[in-house]
Design goal:
Layout: H1 3-32, H2 37-67
Helix pairs in contact: 1-2
Length: about 70
């Protein structure tokens, strides 16, 4: 593995970690705030839906990449 690739993977890992922490904090703040239950549940459902969609897209992208055939000319 080249140095460039490992640095890129570290950067991507840090971005994902930061995103997860930010979404987790927003989720916690939404549920910990004093307010009506309906907005809390709707915002939580939206955040969880976005996370599920992103994870399924990442999984699909990896599956498609694994099935690609390298062509030799």
């Amino acid at each position: 593995m080249s140095d460039n690739m490992s640095v890129r993977n570290i950067g991507i890992g840090l971005i994902i970690l930061g995103f997860i922490m930010l979404v987790g904090y927003a989720f916690y703040e939404t549920l910990a705030s004093d307010g009506s239950l309906i907005p809390k549940l709707s915002i939580a459902a939206i955040l969880l839906g976005i996370i599920v969609i992103l994870l399924s897209l990442i999984k699909e992208k990896k599956a498609v990449k694994d099935k690609e055939i390298e062509r030799k000319y």
